[in-house]
Design goal:
Helix 1 runs antiparallel to helix 2. The chain is built from three helices and no strands. The protein is mostly helical. The protein has a domain of 47 residues. It binds zinc ion. Zinc ion (ZN) binds next to loops.
């Protein structure tokens, strides 16, 4: 269940991102981050998180760690 454990780590990071977004809700970029984080959490729940929405290939872990909220691989993003 290695993948599930790393997903839990990402959820924790996105939780922090959401708290930051709430604290900075007047900042347009923070609101966008907040929406992305909520969207990413929904994708974790329906098991589509970590896959590119463009080409449907798995997104490399290094990219997910740099941009946990991304929904595209480097080619499609
Ligand atoms: Zn792609």
């Amino acid at each position: 269940m290695e993948l599930d454990q790393s997903a839990v780590g990402r959820v924790s990071r996105m939780d922090a991102l959401m708290n930051q977004g709430i604290a900075e809700a007047s900042d347009r970029r923070a609101v966008t981050d907040l929406r992305d984080a909520i969207d990413a959490l929904a994708r974790i729940e329906d098991r589509t998180y970590g896959f590119c929405t463009g080409c449907r290939e798995p997104i490399p872990v290094a990219r997910l760690e740099a941009m946990p909220e991304t929904r595209h691989c480097a080619h499609c993003g």
